[in-house]
Design brief:
This protein is of the alpha+beta class and 441 residues long. The protein is built from seven helices and 20 strands. Bound molecules: fe (ii) ion (FE2) (2 copies).
């Protein structure tokens, strides 16, 4: 079902009175004034908060007609004195009929903000014939808290959702119950996405009960190998923004996904392990460039770890999709040139990224990183620290709720004084699978 078909069936479900109460609460079926021309809904998803940070936030949402979106934001619950931030930067505003992305900057750290989304409907007939014919605002006022030293140190991690919406529904319910300060989506949200509509369905308008899953809890993204596959995923930024331009130096301009965020006593570091196949693998026809990308992240990581708010955090947790450690000799380490094939390994793609482990592992170790949280294996695992590797590694589970022995996980982290507590929630059984404690650096 494509997105427009899905929207139609959502409308049918609404008419049949089978829409979850959360959808109504989020204003999904009760949008504000329609356009002057009486067209259908303009706002077709709840907002998604992207790229959690201390002084900015990304707000993305889907639209069903040519539009310029905006955010009204205020520190006051009644939006008194709200600032209006439009989609688009200098020169021209944005104008499209698919996704609106608004970058809200100049925010205060560890501060609660209230906001509403809206969009102007545009009738565009040519360069000299364009008209705003109306606007639509989501009646719901959402709120979120920015990151920073004063924020509550509490995160959740999900991974390898692969557009399994039954699983995603369960994960988002667990996250809502845990109410963390932010969520890290640790890659493989996608499978192989060829259209922006399928990306919208994954991130902005998923067929789950809690349509506003990311409207009050900001998300961070550490991409997985599948998030680069398919024509649309070559430009995932059309649905999930890159980090703020002012957060990146000219040297790091292409590193739009890396993050270094202080949240309470925890420093969160996001790295991108990129593809699980070598750039030389004929399958990819020389059209991927993961090798140089991994190396470029070394200088970024060195700088991020030196930043005052990161260096001074009692806890340092890094996130990346592909594991950067594995002691199983049959597991492909991702550096078998030229085509990832070697009979000693059980698969011809990376089970782990030895290259990233060698590039980034020593830097994390020197910074006394306590934990690296990874994904990709579709099998939950904990690798305890060893004599020559002071950081532990957690590998999140896969997407299957019923098949096989695995189970999806929500990995939760929070601080209690000088201790970082980690809880691994088994989403198949509902039980706590494991608990770990880490001392402050
Ligand atoms: Fe995966
Ligand atoms: Fe993966």
């Amino acid at each position: 079902m494509d997105r427009r078909e899905f929207l139609k069936s959502s409308a049918a479900l609404t008419a049949a009175g089978v829409v979850a109460p959360e959808m109504l609460a989020a204003g999904q079926t009760d949008m504000g004034a329609h356009g002057a021309d009486g067209e259908g809904r303009l706002l077709t998803s709840a907002p998604m908060l992207q790229n959690y940070a201390s002084d900015s936030i990304g707000v993305a949402f889907a639209v069903g007609d040519m539009a310029n979106g905006y955010v009204l934001i205020s520190e006051s619950p009644d939006l008194a004195g709200a600032r209006k931030v439009k989609c688009g930067g200098f020169r021209v505003t944005e104008m499209n009929d698919t996704v609106q992305q608004i970058r809200v900057t100049g925010l205060k750290p560890a501060t609660r903000y209230y906001y509403r989304i809206g969009a102007d409907r545009i009738r565009y007939k040519g360069g000299y014939s364009m008209k705003v014919t109306g606007h639509e605002e989501d009646p719901h006022v959402y709120s979120f808290v920015t990151a920073g030293k004063g924020a509550e140190g509490h995160f959740c991690v999900i991974n390898d959702t692969h557009a399994h919406f039954d699983t995603f529904d369960r994960l988002t319910e667990k996250i809502a119950a845990l109410a963390p300060s932010c969520v890290i989506w640790n890659g493989d949200a996608s499978n192989c996405e060829e259209t922006i509509d399928s990306q919208v369905r994954i991130f902005l308008d998923p067929p789950i009960a809690r349509k506003d899953y990311a409207a009050g809890i900001p998300y961070l993204f550490a991409p997985g190998n599948h998030d680069s596959r398919g024509m649309a995923n070559r430009h995932l930024e059309q649905v999930w923004m890159f980090r703020q331009p002012e957060e990146r130096t000219a040297r790091d301009w292409d590193l739009g996904r890396n993050f270094a965020v202080r949240m309470g006593d925890i420093a969160l570091i996001g790295l991108d392990t990129a593809e699980d196949k070598l750039d030389t693998n004929p399958l990819f026809a020389g059209l991927f460039n993961s090798g140089e990308y991994r190396k470029a992240q070394v200088a970024w990581l060195q700088g991020a770890l030196r930043r005052k708010e990161i260096a001074s955090a009692p806890f340092l947790v890094a996130f990346c999709h592909i594991p950067i450690f594995d002691d199983d000799p049959t597991h492909n380490p991702g550096d078998v040139a030229p085509a990832d094939k070697d009979p000693q390994y059980s698969a011809d793609f990376a089970y782990w990224q030895r290259t990233c482990g060698e590039l980034w592992g020593p830097l994390l170790q020197k910074a006394r990183c306590q934990l690296v949280i990874t994904a990709h294996m579709h099998a939950y695992r904990f690798d305890a620290p060893a004599r020559d590797r002071k950081w532990a590694q957690l590998v999140g589970g896969g997407p299957d709720l019923v098949k096989g022995d695995g189970f999806p996980t929500v990995i939760e982290g929070f601080t209690e004084g000088r201790t970082l507590r980690i809880r691994v929630h088994n989403i198949r059984t509902g039980a706590i699978q494991d608990e770990f404690r880490f001392d402050a650096r």
